[in-house]
Design a protein that fits this description.
Elements (H helix, E strand, L loop, with lengths): L1 E3 L4 E3 L3 E3 L3 E5 L4 E3 L3 E3 L6 E5 L5 E3 L11 E5 L3 E3 L2 E4 L3 E4 L4 E3 L12 E3 L3 E3 L3 E4 L4 E3 L13 E3 L4 E5 L4 E3 L4 E5 L1 E13 L1 E5 L8 E12 L4 E3 L12 E3 L2 E6 L3 E4 L5 H4 E5 L6 E6 L4 E2 L7 E5 L9 E2 L3 E2 L37 H7 L5 E3 L3 H8 L20 E3 L5 H15 E3 L18 E3 L1 H16 L9 H10 L4 H18 L5 H15 L6 H8 L16
Parallel strand pairs: 1-4, 2-5, 3-6, 4-7, 5-8, 7-9, 8-10, 9-12, 10-15, 11-16, 12-17, 15-18, 16-19, 17-20, 18-21, 19-22, 20-22, 21-23, 22-24, 23-27, 24-28, 24-29, 27-30, 28-31, 30-32, 35-36
Antiparallel strand pairs: 13-14, 25-26, 33-34, 37-38
């Protein structure tokens, strides 16, 4: 441990922890200028207490040997990539807000600026257990600019084995994309703005069992001048919590049950709105609350600018109500004109039926006798193939058997994993079709190559012979170098989980599962082993103990 009064602590070379360490300084700041690693995975914890100074980590922490946990407190907290095993990541800047008249040119309207900010410039990963806490102290009022920022221009990926939590009234602005993976956990978010001027980024994707959107009061937001786009700082009042992206917003929860698994929390009143705006004027979420509005977002340059020092704008949802639901929409979203109404589950559309064929799910129309039975209150569909030796395409699922919301969620999860935006090789800009939609291109080969490399790395230390899928899964999930491979495995598992919710017959489900897994399977692993890697078999039930007879 190192403690100084106010002179500061600066360690500019690589640091290897032989035991858990606490670095403390009251005012001079703490700077770790290179990488930080433990000596045994998950055995050494690190705590930075910077007092009124800044806590800064410019290199990756736990990138080679994961730390047990990381806690960083200070006026401003800045981290690069962080990986822990067995414990969590807690990052807490000064939560004080001050009025700043330099953020407005309108007398009498003064937005609030954070005294301390949190900067995240790399991926955050917790393995085994442990959540991620981002400024969870929260702010007592609504700030006029961002309080958390990630300005790398690339994708920030949060992989958490525990809950992911933002504090009340916190605002996170990301230049690039933001992906949060917390399967089986709860993700709690304040305002989030994600944008990118190129490279097909600008997406917000959250995968969790439950997503809580923190409602807050309306506040003053520093903005550019709409006419000149100059930094003249007019102030615009927003309507409440905003989720804004220049790309797409996708909330992925089990079974596509967005009405119950995406909920509103926070300290806001029932009159405070939650607004979402993305590329197509729609977001993949449906909180179970009528005060949820989807808007078409304003042009990118009208909502964001970074100034030096320490001023990152917060985008706010503004524009006309969305009328063209995005293809990525994972559920019906209430519009302003239909507040208080309940959307009915609709049948699967023709375009979705075509997309389902990518997942080896083939559909058919309802036949006349079946319609007649339905009118009489009998719903019986004969989807048994008529052939003696049927092929995969001979198994046809009646479209009316499939719930639209579940299909949308499944197709979104599939597209997110297997496809990416097609980019112009000359400009790096997304390629659009004649209808103005961004074209998607397959990345199946990248998935296979990444998983093949993970398997090869495992074989270097594993005994010869058939691969043990449980040990391979543990190797990939616990190795920071295999974070991308682990993301692919968990996304594949999520696709299979969503397939189970379709209500397919055992044969139909087996064909769909086998086809999708085979598309991602490297040649260096057998099909049964790969399936056990992605979808681990359930643990055997404990043996019953005989009850002695009297």
């Amino acid at each position: 441990n190192i403690t100084t009064a106010a002179g500061g602590i600066a360690l500019n070379d690589s640091v290897v922890l032989t035991g858990s360490a606490v670095l403390s300084d009251s005012a001079g700041g703490i700077t770790l200028g290179s990488t930080v690693n433990g000596t045994a995975a998950g055995a050494q914890a690190l705590t930075l207490n910077a007092g009124t100074g800044d806590a800064t980590m410019t290199g990756a922490a736990g990138g080679v040997v994961p730390l047990a946990s990381l806690i960083a407190n200070g006026k401003n907290v800045s981290v690069n990539a962080v990986t822990t095993q067995g414990g969590g990541i807690t990052l807490q800047p000064d939560a004080t807000l001050i009025a700043d008249s330099t953020l407005t040119s309108i007398p009498g309207t003064v937005p609030l600026r954070p005294v301390g900010e949190l900067t995240i410039s790399g991926n955050l990963t917790t393995m085994g257990s442990g959540g991620i806490s981002l400024a969870t102290t929260g702010r007592t009022s609504v700030p006029g600019v961002a309080t958390i920022r990630s300005l790398t221009g690339t994708e920030i990926v949060i992989n958490s084995a525990g809950p992911v939590t933002m504090g009340q009234n916190e605002k996170w602005t990301v230049v690039g994309s933001l992906t949060i993976n917390a399967s089986g956990q709860t993700v709690t978010l304040g305002d989030v703005s994600v944008l990118s001027a190129n490279s097909g980024l600008g997406n917000l994707t959250v995968t969790a069992d439950n997503i809580v959107l923190l409602r807050r009061a309306a506040g003053l937001v520093a903005d550019l001048d709409d006419a000149t786009l100059a930094v003249s700082f007019p102030v615009n009042p927003d309507k409440g919590t905003d989720y804004v992206a220049s790309g797409f917003i996708n909330f992925l929860v089990p079974g596509g049950d967005l009405a119950n698994r995406v909920t509103l929390g926070g300290t806001g009143t029932t009159q405070d709105k939650v607004l979402i705006a993305d590329r197509d004027g729609a977001g993949g979420a449906t909180p179970n609350d009528p005060r949820f509005t989807v808007l078409n977002s304003k042009p990118l340059e009208e909502g964001f600018v970074t100034l030096s020092p320490m001023t990152t704008f917060d985008l706010f949802a503004e524009g006309t109500s969305g009328t063209n639901p995005a293809s990525s929409l994972a559920g019906a979203i209430p519009r302003e004109s239909s507040v208080g109404t309940v959307a009915q589950d609709t049948t699967v559309g023709q375009s979705q039926r075509k997309d389902l064929e990518q997942l080896y799910i083939f559909t058919r129309d309802v036949e006349a006798p079946e319609w007649l039975d339905a009118l009489l209150g009998r719903f019986l569909y004969n989807d048994v193939p008529a052939k003696a030796d049927p092929e995969a395409k001979d198994y046809r699922v009646t479209a009316n058997r499939l719930r639209a919301a579940v299909v949308k969620d499944l197709l979104l999860a599939y597209d997110t994993l297997f496809n990416t935006d097609e980019l112009d090789p000359q400009t790096g800009e997304p390629v659009v079709d004649s209808a103005g939609k961004v074209k998607r291109t397959s990345r199946t080969s990248d998935i296979k190559d990444t998983l093949a490399k993970a398997i090869a790395a495992y074989r270097q230390s594993a005994p010869a012979g058939e691969i043990d899928p449980a040990k391979l899964r543990d190797f990939i999930s616990s190795n920071p170098e295999q974070a991308t491979a682990w993301s692919y495995v968990t996304q594949l598992q999520g696709i299979v989980d969503r397939m189970e919710l379709l209500g397919l017959s055992p044969s139909e489900f087996s064909i769909a599962k086998g086809g999708v897994l085979n598309d991602a399977k490297p040649r260096t692993i057998s099909a049964p082993t790969f399936e056990a890697l992605v979808v681990p078999p359930p643990a055997p039930a404990p043996a019953s103990t005989p009850v002695p007879q009297p």
